[in-house]
Amino acid sequence: MMKRLTAAAALLALLPIQSFAEQPAPDPLAFVDPMIGTGPEGHTFPGATAPFGMVQLSPDTDATCQIRDCYDHAAGYSYNDPTIQGFSHTHFSGAGHSDLGDILVMPQVGPVDSVKLDPGDPAKPGSGYRQRFSHDTEKASPGYYAVTLADSGIRAELTAGTRVGVHRYSFPAGKEAHLLLDLRSSLYDYPGKILWSGLHLRPDGTLTGFRETRGWAPGRKLYFAMRFSAPLKSHAFLDRDEKIPYKGFHPPGRGSDALAEKLGKALEARLDFGQLDGPLEVRVALSGVDEVGAVANLDAEGAGFDAVRDRTEGEWRKALGALEIEAPAPMRTNLYTALYHSLLAPSVWSDVDGRYRGPDDQVHTAKDFTFRSTFSLWDTFRAQHPLLTLVQPGKTNSDIVKSLVASRKASPHGILPVWQFHGRETWTMIGYHAVPVIADAYLKGVGDFDANEALDAMVASAEYAPYGGLGDYMKLGYVAIDREPEAASKTVEYAYDDWTIARMAEKMGRKDIADRFYKRAGYWRNSFDAKTGWLRARKADGSFRTPFDPTAINYGSDYTEGNAWQYSWFVPQDQAGLFRILGGDAKTIAKLDAMFDYDISKLDYSHAEDIAGLIGQYIHGNEPSHHVAYLYAYAGAPWRTQERLKQIVDSQYKPTPDGLSGNDDLGQMSAWLVFTSLGFYPVAPGSNQYVIGRPFVDRAVLNLPGGKRFTVETVGLSDANPYVGKVELNGKPLARSWISDAEIRSGGTLRFTMQTKPDAEWGKAAAARPYSLSTARAAP
């Protein structure tokens, strides 16, 4: 009997171990909530897309806004809207400007003569093809979105591959099924945006078409190819300028070689399928080249709904698996969603055969890389691109650099992109911030590209005198405000970009270039008024412009989307040099505190759309402030950084639709949170250093190439322990307030021990502080 009990006990003892061993790893997709940021400030979209996908298939809740009221609908979807106008195939994630919303599709039911051709009034149900919906019926996850359209009972499901979007519509039984394809609809929908469009029904039932638009990006061309899982019963192509239906359809078997075509500026297609026995799948591929390219993309990637969804979800699991996160549930959701948002751009823009349309509006071929576009560089050079060097260190970064250089070759001006999408330049924002993206990748040894060609492109961009006051900058040492708006911001941003050129040139042995651009990296001093302690705009005669108000924020003023409070801190390449001008560590810390503690109750910034997420004069909802909390470390007070980071994270992020305090800006707001949660941040991309803050995770693992793993561990993480008591790297105490990129890529463990009270001595010594040009020392 005893023997039997022992055997049974042994068997029972084995069962939990075996069960535990067989437990699958947590699925990162379960922790992503694409609804985060779809509220009024974040400007994200909830629809389906693949990592860096060309297609972003998502619902548009209001695609009829005019120029001045499009801001809240920059991504097409706003969480507070009660209706869905349709499902379109292109969207920005978190941009501060709206465009796209291409190729809008909306399902309908009923007799043919009941099909509605206009979206109607959101306040008047049934007045058009838009339909009401409830968030209770929505489901959103990486690569998948679903909703029930309340007015028709249609269940809409969306998924997407890299160049394809697939719709699946389940129609109520006994109802005739229709699709309306509206080529008139577009985000940022001002009169005359549609320059030309076309529809073409092919003998095999494939519907192809195109449209050319003028909007944020002028002369943008987009082509599509569409196939259906059920045959068309009838259709009509309409030019709403003519208001005459086109009746050129030939049923199969009766003149089926004839093609139905329509050209015009206000085209729609009514597509009729009769009563269906099952769901209707609609497969759509895009191309920036031509309809032939769209068809080829559809042939290559246009599988059925479930196959595309499974493939894309697998791609998302791999991409999100670059980072393993253990944190309290709300923070884990915030972080996996932030990582997801950081992996949406720069999006693929070349076809499966490598062809793409460039900034010269000509067709080019990418032979050894995938051409990418959607570069919001003024935003993303700060954290999103540095994050990609860690979580997408191989082909993605090679593609990015090669795409930037290829764009420069095709640019009519011979310079790198500024703010580009769909291959077209918008000239939005300031700086030449493709430069630090390239330099940061090169200095980290990430990516395979021609460094000399890249450096030539960087120098050409930095020396293109007609751009943004660069002529004066090179001649005077600053941008002159009486000749160029936002001159103070441009001066300091150019100086930072120049420093990254110098860093890359120095590593390449190009001493002549390095020396020239190291000198230019110090030009920020020429716009800094040491007497007042502010960055200020200067006139061509050398005088500072007056009157001067450091709190004033106006478009086209001395600063870009900010004021002197934010921009006076933008010297990431030489914070030590700035702090000396400010009078040393104590005065610098006092001024930083004054920024965060500023009473803004009597200030009105409602006229500035991008000014959101204010903590005093710190504006987390916009990028110029993003590095500022880390600057205490440069003044020998990292514990103050730890305080401010806690304040920012607690107030600016939450796992809800209104969980982003400002535009996500193609992943920059999200990348800030990812880095900050890990306990470090790239204040100066190009330095190969990350400034240590404090972690917000219990444990996280970066899965790096070659099987290497860099682990962040936190002991005692809680609201009661907001300060870092000890930092250890690979088991040894770390006295400095920064960690190098090489140390992370080598793998190992960074351990934080948290405590209730601050350690005012850690990181205080001058030798413990992060890189500054004027006190430069090499990272290990």
From TrEMBL:
Ranges for domain Glycosyl hydrolase family 92 N-terminal: 31-287
Presence of keyword Signal: yes
Sequence ranges assigned to domain Glycosyl hydrolase family in this UniProt record: 294-755
InterPro entries per the UniProt record, alphabetical: 6-hairpin_glycosidase_sf, GH-type_carb-bd, GH92_a_mannosidase_put, GH92_N, Glyco_hydro_92, PNGase
GO CC annotations on file: cytosol
Pfam (any one): Glyco_hydro_92
Spans annotated as Disordered: 114-134
GO MF, one annotated term: carbohydrate binding
Signal peptide positions (record): 1-21
GO biological process assignments: carbohydrate metabolic process; glycoprotein catabolic process
Signal keyword on record: yes
UniProt keyword list: Signal
Annotated protein name in UniProt: Putative alpha-1,2-mannosidase
Organism listed in the record: Sphingopyxis italica
